Amino acid sequence: MQDIKIDFNPKKGVVNIYGQSMLFHCNHFNRYLQQTIEDPAYIDSDKILLQSAAETVYLQFSEYFRQNPDLTLMEKLEFASNMFKFAGFGILDFSEVDEKGGRVIGRSSHFGLAIRLNLAKRTRPGEFFDRGFIAGVLLAIKGSIPGYVFEEGFSIRQTKSISLGDDICVFEIDPEPHFVWIERLTPKDLPYFVEIPKRRFDTTVDEDAIVKAVSGMEIVGDERGLIPAFGVYLTRMYADYYNKISFRFEHELRKAAGTVDLATELLIESGHICAFNTLGGIMKSEEWKALIMPMIKNKEDWMHGIVAVVNALGWGIWRVEELVPNERLVLRAYQDYESLGHLRWFGKADHPISYLFTGGCAGLMNLLYHGDITKNPALDKDYYYQLFKTQDCFKGKQTKCLAMGDDYSEVVATRNQDK
Questions:
Q1: Domain containing 32: what range?
Q2: pTM > 0.90: yes or no
């Protein structure tokens, strides 16, 4: 089994694995974001989800194969299986794939299991990421073996689906008809790196110790290729998969509606889902109790503690600029992955696009002050509605955006003033 090298830069809050930024998110965020993109019948959500996965995986595996030019086909496919399992995506069995095609068996699927939690009854497979992952791997192998059937293109048909209730997924590799897996592969130049300032607040929370401890945890897939942690199932997902599906979705809705308002509302809601389940789950976890609670003296320290954890997740670096208990939070994000992704693949934005960051900022205030995560509440549907759907809950507003040309992104969370 090939080792997977993780390059974590604590000064930027970024994890690089063979040329791709990868970060942690949970099953609830993953399923909600995908369902959001699937829901509008007037956009081609299949294309958005499949191409975004294939392009990102293709770039990573092309880099890995460049670094390891002597690998056989079986060794390349074995590495693909290892990466899928390592990142918490599940188990992919490539043993029936050869130079002429074949099929891939999904013994387990993070997305398949996550999507089964959605209330709506599905009528078609939901493992788009898994299919796109397989395609990206095959495209990266393309041309390396004489007579390789994938030299001319292929499609992947899914005949069994965990998301539809089957025990496994089956992906049939079909040379006909062809699907255009790759559309956007040439990134744009990123802006210069701004030195990230030191923390402003005097607190007993030792962020450096937390970042070192959390980033050093072995958070990898288990025997099922899943990562059960903090009360959720995590994936170490590609930042640019999130970026491409989000911004392609936004662009399609903008063309249809003539405004970004609907996409903004929906994508910020995915940030609320993430804050509630992932960040809320972390603050209820045994790891939190063991590592961070001994540093905490008051409720404000909970904010500094969870921001420190965020800075080990690969999302960039967050800084608390202002915190007025029960009233106002100003967070800044340096190198936030959403802005970097927009700049890299879509260029400069004409409106704020840090949706996860915006929803996360509001979510933290709702968890701490609209509700009270310190009292260990159950993170269920009723509590979510209490925190995010009542009249005086906290809402986030992005006031600066790296993707628009600012040196950092900034969100202000205050009580909702809408009546």
A1: 7-174
A2: yes
Q: What's the maximum distance between 2 C-alpha atoms anywhere in the chain?
A: 67
CA 46 remoteness from chain centre: 18
**Is residue 109 located within the same domain as residue 219?**
no
Asked if 280 and 408 sit in the same domain, the reply is yes
How many distinct structural domains can be found in the chain? 2
Residue 311 sits in a domain of what CATH number?
A: 3.30.1380.20
- Structural domain contains residue 195: no
pLDDT in tens, 336-380: 999 999 999 999 999 999 999 999 999 999 999 999 999 999 999
